[in-house]
UniProtKB/TrEMBL annotation:
Biological source species: Streptomyces sp. R35
PANTHER family from the UniProt entry: AMINO ACID TRANSPORTER-RELATED, ARGININE_ORNITHINE ANTIPORTER-RELATED
High-level lineage: Bacteria, Bacillati, Actinomycetota, Actinomycetes, Kitasatosporales
Gene Ontology BP annotations: amino acid transport
Pfam short name (any one): AA_permease_2
UniProt topology in membrane: Multi-pass membrane protein
Localization of this protein: Cell membrane
Gene Ontology MF terms: transmembrane transporter activity
One GO cellular component, as annotated: plasma membrane
The protein's name in its UniProt record: Basic amino acid/polyamine antiporter
Amino acid sequence: MTQVDAETKAPPAAKLTLLTLTTMVVGSMVGAGVFSLPSRFAQETGVAGALIAWAVAGTGMLMLAFVFQRLAISRPDLDAGVYAYAKAGFGEYLGFFSAFGYWASACVGNVTYWVLIMSTIGAIAPALGDGDTVLAIVLSSVGLWSFFFLIRRGVKEAAAINRIVTVAKIVPILVFIILALFYLNPHVFAENFGGADYAGSLFQQVKGTMLATVFVFLGVEGASVYSRHAKRREDVGRATVLGFLSVFAVFASVTIVSYGIMPMGEIAELRQPSMAGVLEHAVGTWGQVFVSVGLIVSVLGAYLAWTLMSAEVLFVAAKDEDMPRFLGRSTSADVPVPALLMTTLLTQVVLVVTLFSDDAFNFALDLTSALTLIPFLLAAAFAVKIARGRLGGDLAIASLATVYTAFLLYAAGLKFILVSFIIYAPATALFVMARREQGRRLFSPRELVILAVSIAGAILGIVALAVGWISL
């Protein structure tokens, strides 16, 4: 029997329960982003702006969570939700872009994990710098490929590890919040309320934090990505909402309590992970060590979860003939190895690119969020499309989610939209490969318009980088 035959006839993996799906969502959301929140928010806003930002982000992301919940129930025929919803609503080419954009965002997001973990170790090993030196890239690459071989052994084994890691990484975050509340200085908190002079107007403060909130909430759609593995379809929607509600208060608390420990300007200057610097200021050196260890566990767990999810998107897209066939192969352990390999390769490429960035961590964080916005917007718009014509909660929720994601694109700014086009446009080569394998016409007239827009955006982005209008 050939390898392809063996892969085709492989028995299905064990189905995922509600608990496992919820753990995957929480594990995906609680990662590098939460450990960077204090300084990232302090660079943009004070307490008032942070409260508004979390209210906007929490409401908007809750609407998205409800969208994924209701689509999982109303359209149980669609697997790998984010990608499948875009395709069902707006055609194969935009569905392809949604799949690729979501996958690429996961790969770029994985880079932030390695940058942050090397920056953490860099506090005691200066050669690693802020996680963007040559030595840091080499060590990150070793870790990157070690995870590739771990995941290749089987999705079930990797998922079991993720459940353990998810519990372990929540503990230091909760301890941080409790200790920060205990040491909170009301006078410092009050001084940080309106924001520093450099923060600008309240609207600018809120706008500046939007991409950071998107990054920490990435993973809210995690259960829908694994919908084909769910034991019961309704568990996909339940896990999405439960996962979101489980972490929202934690994320907001980490940010707000930090404003009561140090002046806003000092928090903004902390090296990553800034949560460690805040706790060190409150309780001493042991606080920094405690958070740093927790970060390493958290980042490794989040990297595992996101690598699994990104490979799954490529695999399902290939099964639906929207990606080349080789990406639809899997082993007897239900591991999509070609998709996993491509995920690791793109992460490796972006990791090297960080050497040329002014701020590797924040650049990768913002680009991750920007790449995700188009898939999110298309999924929300699809929910509007199928709810149209019948008034009620579904239409209201879908409309609010659509407005929220559209606002996020505006908040991202031209820089990250153009850089996203540079990544999106070349991906069309995979779409062309898939169409040729099927002997189909490469592009319809409507798809040619979309292609022209993506190429024009990519060219403009390259020119903007070349002449210095934007920088990495």
